Amino acid sequence: MLFNTGKPKSKKLQAFIDKELKYLLGLILILGLLNTYKANFVSALVNGKPISRLALIKELERQGKDLAVDSLISQELIFQEAKRQKINISQKDLNKAVDGVKKSLEGNKQDLQGFLDNQNLKYNDFLKQIKLQLIIEKLLSGKVKISDEKVNKYIEENRQFFPEGVSDKDLKATALEQLKQIELNAKVQELLNNLRNKASIKYFTK
Q: What is the C-alpha to C-alpha distance for residues 106 and 121, in angstroms, rounded to an integer?
């Protein structure tokens, strides 16, 4: 009950009054917000002509869809290349990789299901991503090599970003993993570019 102006004549009457007052106050609040934050409905002005927030949202949705299509194409190209090279991921390898993710999450006080919920990711899609990662590692096996000289140079150039009090051994191990990931990402992009150049891709979405 929002207000009490005396004993109501009936429960139905009081309920009606409460409902009408809630509606009125809600309308006043909305109008106030619209007036206070009216700038939020305009993203920009170009020579005095407004670009609406709705137009911005639609453009972001379009770009998001384009990125999603591009991602699915990349995944399909990798799966097809794995099939061509007769690369298979066993259930044992898949389980081992999943266990590795679980242990990593547990080290950060998380569990797998909580992680999937936060990422809005279904378990089957998670497994697909793990399988994709394992395929990429096999496709690029032996192509990612990091020298000790490169590791030492990387540490010196990025020492301020590493935590203090870490042993030289752990520091080098961390730097090596980071460099491997950087190199792997570059090799993946190179692989995808080569696969795209050789593939026949037709787009049917706008």
A: 18
pLDDT grade for 174, boundaries at 50, 70 and 90: confident
How sure is the predictor about 69, in pLDDT bands with cuts at 50, 70 and 90?
Answer: confident
**pLDDT for 121 beyond 70:** yes
pTM here?
A: 0.62
CA distance 113 to 134: 21
User: Do the Cβ atoms of 166 and 174 come closer than 8 Å?
Assistant: yes
Total structural domains within the chain: 4
Query: 134 and 148 share a domain?
Result: no
Here the tokens at position 159 are 């020492």
List the domain range (segments joined by +) for residue 121. 87-139
Amino acid at 146: I
Kindly tell me if the per-residue pLDDT of 206 is higher than 60: no
Based on the fold, state whether residues 65 and 30 are members of the same structural domain. no
65 and 113 together in one domain: no
Q: Are residues 149 and 135 in the same domain?
A: no
In the block, tokens 């051994």 appear at: 169
Task: Give residue for tokens 């990025």.
Answer: 158
Q: Are residues 75 and 101 in the same domain?
A: no
* Inter-residue contact 110 to 166 (CB < 8 Å): no
Within this chain, do residues 128 and 75 fall inside the same structural domain, yes or no? no
pLDDT, position 94: 92
pLDDT of residue 66: 78
- The 3-state DSSP class for residue 120 equals coil
